[in-house]
Amino acid sequence: MKRANLVEFGKIVIEDVDVPSPGPGQVRVAVRICGICGTDVHAFQGHHPFISAPIVPGHEFSGEIDKLGQGVEGLVVGQNVTVEPSLVCGECEACRSGRYNICENLRVLGCQSAGAMAEMISVPAQKIICLPEDMSYEQGALIEPTAVAVHALHRADLSRVKRLLVIGSGPIGLLTLQVAHAWRIPIIVATDIVDSKLAKASELGATHAINVSQIPLTDFFVEEFGKPNPIDLAMECVGAEATLLQAIESATEGGQIVIVGVPPTDPKIRLSWVQDRELELLGTLMYTQCDFEEARDLIATGRVQTEPLITARYPLERVGEALHEVLTHPENNVKTLITIQE
After folding, report:
1. pLDDT of residue 236
2. Can you give the pTM of this predicted structure?
3. Domains of the chain
4. What is the dihedral of CA 86, 92, 96, 98, to 10 degrees?
């Protein structure tokens, strides 16, 4: 079979390797579609703190069951599926408490274990999420990033939220605002520095879309809401020092901030405002199976749209080119999909 291997930072090689056999309790999936995530781009650059080369990337994907390992029940060959890509120990305190997404020994397909930019992949059967019959492979591949948004919003107390700020209108930001819109949060402010992404944000449910390279966010808030920090919940979906500061400055007294983006370095933030305003800083990591299933249902019912996010499609043989394009022209890209096999 063919797979894309990040043999060293900045270099992808298409390899021919043996097809993996599913072990006991495993399922082999014939991968159809795999998305490129910001994590993959950071890994390609060598900037991700928890990924080293060589590694086969890819953790947001869909396909069909190709073979069942010994002891697997309740699944059949030919079913269309996606996969929750977290590999956990099941024994640490976090796992035992049900928060296995923060497992002390967490590994992730495409990050610390070979991922889905390959024609076949074997995964634990309990990580299989079956797709509805009328769901496309492209929709199925975007369940994973939608689950990121679902879990991130669940981290906050949404009963206190009337005004939501989504910082960054990339794929996670656009999915986050769609989930928030589906959950009837009344005011959703989306920000970015690219007008085309802000147009998508407006199309997908943002009540306000602000280009912060042209309009200071505090000026907009004063004009629209009468104060420079009116936000009940800020979802920081970039991971940069400047945007983390924006989130803190925007939050109202007692407000909440969920840090969704992955900062490449330790940022300096205004902790005095966190203390003085009793702000709540919340981290979020990945998802659980419940988040995955909720994300699947949001897409299946049309409450989250995936097609508007897809800006490019490439075959497996051109993964390196696709990563380079996403890296060098982020303004033109929201979600790039790789067709692994037809």
Report:
1. 98
2. 0.96
3. 2-142+306-339 (3.90.180.10), 148-283 (3.40.50.720)
4. -40
